[in-house]
Amino acid sequence: MTPVQIKICGVTNLKDARACVELGASMIGFNFYSQSRRYIEPKVARRIIEAIVPGICAVGVFVDASAKEIRNIADTAGVRCVQLHGCASPNTCTELASEFRVIRAFSTHPQFRPEEVCFFGDCDTLVDAHHPNLRGGTGLTCDWLAARTIRSFARFLILSGGLNEQNVGQAIATVGPHSVDVCSGVERAPGTKDYGALKNFIRAVQTANSSMNAFTSS
Questions:
Q1: What is the mean pLDDT of residues 180-207?
Q2: d(CA 162, CA 19)
């Protein structure tokens, strides 16, 4: 069974980025939404990305940005994967998918229908908790049962929303995602990682992976 991958979002400095990579993360998220407390300048993100080991997927996070804006910022930062929150249409996602790996983010609000994911067939899917004002990093736990339903429609599912070292194992067992995404659950303050929490979170994911492998091989 393919191990669940780990995405650490809201990285704002090189020290934290290196810690994420050394501890086992395969994806690192940089927030280019100017209203976020974890916003990072694209040129600063580029210096971080160029300083870490190759092969790590650097993800640019955008909210309600146009395709032109996304391209310009992604090129400046040097990211080849973009995560889109807000009103990104299927046409915009398809257009960008010819140049980037695209992750379309959805929230488990009461009106959300899992089959909506089918309109974004060129994208990977991230499912997060709903918040009326914030886009990610809220610390709120998403609806795991809704996320499990989305799993059948998504080509690659990233589970986000309120994950931490205590609940990530159960989240993986319940939803069965391809990757988990954490932000506030491994922070001392917005944009500053807590290395103890980061280490414990990644260890919990690795333990869940080992448990699943043992179950499938028995």
A1: 96
A2: 21
By CB neighbour count within 10 A (0-12 exposed, 13-18 middle, 19+ buried), where does 44 fall? Answer: middle
Q: What is d(CA 73, CA 189) in angstroms, rounded to the nearest whole number?
A: 25
Strand partners, 62: 84
Confidence at 137, pLDDT banded by 50, 70, 90: low
Dig out the tokens for 48 from the structure.
């971080």
Burial 155-167 (b: 16+ CB within 10 A, else e): eebbbbbbbbbee
How far is 206 from 190, CA to CA, in rounded Å?
25
Residues recognised as catalytic: 9, 128
**Cα distance between residue 165 and residue 159, in whole Å:** 14
Cβ within 8 Å of residue 206, ≥6 positions away: 3, 24
Give all domains of the chain, ordered by start, each with its CATH number.
Answer: 5-217 (3.20.20.70)
